[in-house]
Amino acid sequence: MLEDGLIPMSRQMVHLTNVEQEALVVGQRKGPAIVFCLDDTVDAEPVAEGIWVARRVGVNHLTIQNPFRFESGVSA
Fold first, then answer.
1. Tens digits of per-residue pLDDT, 13-29?
2. C or N: which end of the chain has fewer Cβ atoms within 10 Å?
């Protein structure tokens, strides 16, 4: 993620939320969660309350937000 940004992997779009607790729960599905903050220039479409989708989010639009980043093995 820190090299390629957020990409959809096996999905068509990257799913985003502004609900911190939801981000933590979803992020923990495959290991320790890393929560990113996105700048406001990301081209995302709203699809439901608190959920957006984007084709991808470049690394230049991401900042690690959550305080658990060192526990997750990421130190950027």
1. 999 998 888 888 888 88
2. C
What contacts 20, CB < 8 A, 6 or more positions away? 35
Residue 22, helix vs strand vs coil: helix
Instruction: Output the DSSP codes for 23-66.
Output: HHHHHGGGSS---EEE-TT---EEEETTEEEES-B-GGGEEE-S
Rg (CA), the chain: 12
User: Which residue type does 9 have?
Assistant: M
For residue 56, the number of C-alpha atoms closer than 13 Å in the C-beta half-sphere is: 10
CA separation for the pair 57, 41 (Å, rounded): 10
Q: How many residues does the chain have?
A: 76
The confidence score (pLDDT) of residue 68 equals: 56
Pairing of strands 62-64, 36-38: antiparallel
